[in-house]
Structure formats: structure tokens, C-alpha cells
Amino acid sequence: MGKNTRRAKREPRRKKARVTVSLSRDVLEYLEAERARVQAPSLSAFFEAIVRDLQAKAETAALEAKMTACYDKLGAAEMADEADWGKVGAASLARLRD
């Protein structure tokens, strides 16, 4: 198997941008220790994982806020209907698990 064939099976590389930051020594020591603890291959990979986690949490919070706003607009009859559909869904899931 040649080099090009192996590379094609891997995830395509994304272009990276170089960023320079200044951190206090104690913060850097903490980050290095955490990087080692989670066995991230590099400090850059560790930072990227942290940022992706923060991004996912922010996106989840935004989605939850939109859903809450949507449900807040429903009237009593619509809420009762949604609750009934929720019960049907829960019963269906319970049957699938059995």
C-alpha cells in the first residue's frame, strides 16, 4: 500500500493558523500537566479540544434557548398536545428497549 493510499483513508488535514499567546508560568504548568493527563499529542491539540468543547457547549446552549423560546410561545392546549406526544414517544422507546 503506497503513501497516497494511506493518506486518503485518514481525515483530510485542515489548514492551521499560527497563534501566539502569553501565559503566566503557573497557567502554562497547569495546561501542560492537563495535556499530559489526557494524553493529548501536543499543547496545540489540547487547546483545540478545549475550544471545540466550549464551542459545542455554546451551540447546545443556543439551541436550548431557541427551544425554550419556542415552547414559551405555546398556549395551554398546544402544551397539552406536546405532552401527549411526549408520552407516545416515551412509550415507543420503552417498547424498543424491551
Care to describe what's here?
This protein is an all-alpha fold and 98 residues long. It has one domain. Helix content is 74%, strand content 0%. The chain is built from 4 helices and no strands. The protein has helices at residues 3-9, 25-38, 43-72, 76-97.
Termini, distance in Å? 46 Å
Order of H and E elements = HHHH
Q: Approximately how much beta-strand content do the residues carry?
A: under 5%
The averaged pLDDT comes out at 88
Number of helices: 4
Into how many domains do the coordinates divide?
1
Secondary-structure-derived class: mainly alpha
Question: How big is the Rg?
Answer: 23 Å
Strand and helix layout:
Elements: H1 3-9, H2 25-38, H3 43-72, H4 76-97
Key phrases:
98 residues, 74% helix, mainly alpha, 4 helices
Summarize the structure.
The protein has about 100 residues and is mostly helical. Helix content is about 75%, strand content about 0%.
